[in-house]
Amino acid sequence: MNDRIVLTYHVSPEDFTRAGEASSDVKNKLKQMGVSPSAVRKVAIAMYEGEINMVIHANGGDITVEITPEKIVMILKDVGPGIADVEKAMQEGYSTAPDHVRSLGFGAGMGLPNMKNYTDDIQIDTKLGVGTTVTMTINL
Amino acid sequence: MTVQQLIDSSGFSPVNAGGDARDRAISGVYCCDLLSIAMGHAPADCAWVTVMANMNTLAVAALADVACVVLAEGAALDDASAEKAKLQGITVLSTDLPVFDAALRVHTMLR
Ligand SMILES: Nc1ncnc2c1ncn2[C@@H]1O[C@H](COP(=O)(O)OP(=O)(O)OP(=O)(O)O)[C@@H](O)[C@H]1O
Ligand SMILES: [Mg+2]
Questions:
Q1: Which CATH superfamily is domain A5-139 in?
Q2: Which atom of ligand 1 is nearest to the CA of A110?
Q3: In what helix (H) or strand (E) does residue A99 lie, and over which residues does it extend?
Q4: CA end-to-end span of chain A, whole Å?
Q5: What is the ipTM of this complex?
Q6: Which residues of A fall within a CB distance of 8 Å from B60?
């Protein structure tokens, strides 16, 4: 494995049919690099939840994934509405997902809790009206 | 039991038999229709029984490493989603059985 690999993705807004493509690409690349299946699964789950949140709640955004032999860092940056109360948003069951999204199976309010549970570290930097940057780290 | 054995003996209709992963051993059965709960709780290699049949179901199935998706209550994928299942080699079966009965059938076959 190279010392440091950086992957970047643009996530389009409100495109539910393509949501998950970035996460699946990262998953495939990590598999090819020989990263352990359990770490690959954690990255895939955490990144998908972040990716779909950008699609649903933030008009899309950009994702950078940095891979080193020690860790995988995912940075998901959007210029959406921001999160008013992060502590509340992190609670299981809290969701502001609209009905048309709930009918697709989203809105359980479990995305952010999954992101926390499947990573070693999560930082949420958010400002109302400015946007949100979620940084997640998985140690290898 | 492998995914192929489930396809052969369950009586469920194959929507997409799946690609190279049909010799994968099924670890158990998991039921839920809310995607992020399934994402967080479906065990790797399980058979996931749901009535939620869309593109996002397939994304969750692939990313959470489930062995196959069983669509219960006659839930059906639209053409674009069926195409994606094919492209990504995700095994999808369908049945008119309710969720519990479909899950029970898989569970019984696993024992
Ligand atoms: N990138 C974001 N920008 C703005 N708000 C967000 C963002 N991500 C999450 N939120 C807010 O936090 C809430 C909780 O997010 P979480 O992912 O846990 O649940 P959800 O997306 O509503 O439903 P689920 O993920 O279970 O389908 C959201 O409903 C939304 O209000
Ligand atoms: Mg979410």
A1: Histidine kinase-like ATPase, C-terminal domain (3.30.565.10)
A2: 26
A3: helix A99-102
A4: 13
A5: 0.93
A6: 20, 48
